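Let us work through a complete example step by step.
Step 1: write down the sequence.
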Amino acid sequence: MKQNDAVFQAVCSVLGAQSFDSKVLLTKEQKQSVIAIVTEGILAGQVDFSTEAKTNHDTPAKVKSYTGGMVDNHLRKDKRLNGGEKYEIKNPGSRSKSDPTLRALKTLQSTQEPDSDSWHQIEAAIYDRQMELSKAKTVEIDLSALPEEFRHLVK
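Step 2: predict the structure and record it as tokens.
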């Protein structure tokens, strides 16, 4: 069974419902129950768990820790659990892993002596690239929801 289906079924089981009209909010106890159900499924081999994940999470405690993050992830992203909303990243572009240029610059900087001229040149290039990436993201603003005195600021 896929992980997202396992989380959904566990939430349904804990809350005693088959579907949800709005975003699912779990109490701490309910969330622990969902984590326990999914963890049991993983340990029993009923829930998909990659070979790499099995290698990295080789004890029941590590699997439970992994499952806690996975449940949080699916509560945010699964449309069956989040009220049908498309998941939006809170800080797009904040992760350098997604930009190969930024990643390469940071790696190069780590090979330089701190506070050397080359280190500072690379630091400036990193800053410039981050600014370039932050300008590249598109932002939609609902003009009708914005007070009249601020509408002229929208570009």
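Step 3: interpret the result. The chain has two domains: 3-77, 96-136.
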